[in-house]
Each structure stands twice: as C-alpha cells, then as structure tokens.
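Review form for a predicted model. The reviewer records the input and the model, then writes brief findings.
Reviewer: anonymous (R2)
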Amino acid sequence: MNSFLYDNRITRIIEQALYEDVGLGDVTTSAIIPENTIGKAEILIKENGILAGIEIAEFVFQTMDNEIVFHKNYFDGDIVANGITVATIYGSLANIIRAERTALNFLQRMSGIATLTRKFVKAVDGTNAKITDTRKTVPNIRILDKLAVKIGGGINHRFGLDDMVLIKDNHIAAAGGIGFAIEKCLEFLSLQKMRLTIEVETKNIDEVMEALQYKENIHRIMLDNFSLPEMNIAVERIHHSVEVEASGNVSMENVRSIAETGVDCISIGALTHSVKALDISLEIVN
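Model under review:
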C-alpha cells in the first residue's frame, strides 16, 4: 500500500467526500436493494491511459464497509487500455453502489492527471528536465493531485507555503525589487532559525542577473514566461550556478523545446488545474 495512504489527511478527505455524497443515506439504494444482498462489481477502463488512485478507490470502498473485498488486477502507474477490468469488488451490493461515485471521482481525476503527466514526461525524455506540478490544485485534495503527478512520473513542487521560500512577482513588487525581497527573506529565515530553500521568480534577463548576485544564498531561479531565445540566454548566464525552472504557457507542442534549453525542471499548472478525467466506470456483475 502506498505510504501516502497512511497520511491522516487522506482519511479525512475520503470520509468527507463520502459524507458529501451519501449524506444521511442513499435513499434510492435503500429502497431497492436489501442490506444483506451480496454482490460483485468490476471497475472498467474505457480509455487508454495511466492508472492512478486505485488504492484510493479501495480505501473508499473499505471506509464505506470494511467487509468489502477489493481485488486489484492493475496497480497505480500501470498502462491501461479501453476494455480492461482493473479491479473486482465483492460484498454488500448496497454499500458498493453507495461508494461507487466517490471512488470513481477520485480514480478518474487521478488517472487523468497521471496520464497527462506521463505524456509530458515522455515528451522531454532524453533531456535533463523534470516535469513538476504547481499549487494550482483542487482545494482540500492537493495531496491526491500531487500523488497522481508522482504516479505519472513527474515530481512535486512545494506542497504549501510553508515548504520553501518562493519569491514571486507580487512579493518583489511589495519589497521594491528582487534584491530587497531576497534580503528580507534571508533576514527572516535567520531570525526564525529556519533552514528553507529559496527560489526567485524572474520576468526578464535583467531580473535573472539581479537574482544571480545572490547565487550563494538561493537554490533556484524561475524563468516565468520567457521566450525560447530569452530562456537560452538565461540558462547560459546562470551556467549551473543554481537550478533553473521554466514556467508559463507550457504545452505539449513546446515542452520539448523548453527542455532542450537546459533547464532543470518545467512546472506545468495544467497537470492539475484543468485536467480531463480518464473515462472509467463501475458495473455490477450478475
């Protein structure tokens, strides 16, 4: 079982999601299916992709009813194709149906994220660039969105605002410049006795050069919405003194060209903020 599942946040997410869907009770199922009816169901893939969230789906069913037996035929990270049965479920038919939508919602979304991530990862194969996510996730389920990115072969950027120092454009504007913003952060970290990495967002070559004056103190420079020629210049000027992240308007069409500039990672908000769910269904087997 994935170590993520031992996180209490996932337990709370699943419990809240079931309560949101079932509420005080599934009136339709209660009216039609006797509680002691035992049945079998299958989870079917209807679209090619990468499976992600099968353990989360299992957790949903067993949270609904710990006597439900969930047999996995495929696992997170597996390539799946239309027509494949990825899991078979045995137990209370009423409880299987009650948990169905919540389980599928997680499974479909996570598989969609993993599938898209894997496409980007394959697109930059052979370069040094890693594909990373952002904080542009659905509120309250970020841990699942980021788990799906990892399953798809990407890496996770900071989970939240307390993970690292990321000096963005509004911070720079408020501080009066990149140098002032970095100085303030260094002073704050020293006073608080905190050891966190520092990343600085830049908008142009001049800002890159200003940030490089602090290369001994910062970990990474973000090139935000740079053109490819500007990115090439920036990577050359940075010359491996700090890590380089490319961000902004990344697509399947340009990600390879971005990777070939020599950046270390490419952050893509679309991995989680506008992903298409993979088509997956649950069917009762008579």
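Findings: Residues 119 and 252 are 8 Å apart (CA to CA).
Further findings: The chain has a mean pLDDT of 96.
Recommendation: see findings above.
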